[in-house]
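Changelog-adjacent note: as of this version, every example in the card shows the full chain rather than a window. The one below runs 216 residues end to end.
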Amino acid sequence: MSFDDVKDERMLVMVDKLCVWMGGILGETLNRENLIVTIRNGGPLCKLADYIQESVDDFKANNEDNDDLPSNAPQGCDFTCGVRTMEARQNVTKFLDWARKLRVPESSIFLPDDLLKLKGKMNVVNTLLAVARRAKDCGMAADIDAPPKIANAFKGLEEKFGKKFEHTATAFGGQKSALKSTTMTLSATSAWKVVQQKIDLILQLRGKPSYEIFRA
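Full-length structure tokens:
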């Protein structure tokens, strides 16, 4: 199952980044053509969680107040089951439960049938990207930041609207920058400052023609 129907090139770039990252961890050659097929029975997802759990354990050992992070990767997974079996559904469910403990937002969690019945492959991708970001937060190498054009777009929104888009820019790899400040004060030598001074004279000097003031 490929991603040929996805027209947004930026999302396809993110799919490619995800394939490279997951493939490097799992020792698989993943691409747009085989990603969903390869992970469909949930077994590779449980393996992915197992590798990430090592970084989570190290992070918890060196940082306080993280006891709510998962203590174990999914247990009792069946790595060879068929995609239409109950074992496959259990694999996927165990992975998603683990992802929730990893603090992946519920809004980013795909439904089991999105993968098992191929109902929402982009939902699956979004969840895996969120897992990758959480893994990166725990110290695991993960080159899953958005391309510069996407990151810069969100940075621009942050500068325009303030903190409203701050979390989005950060999630896509943008760095928070100070909002630009502007001043409405005119310099003494600017043309508009001179005009303003002339107008002030018109208002203050009664009986004197305005053309004489501007001639001065």
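Structural remarks: Confidence is low (pLDDT under 50) at residues 163-184.
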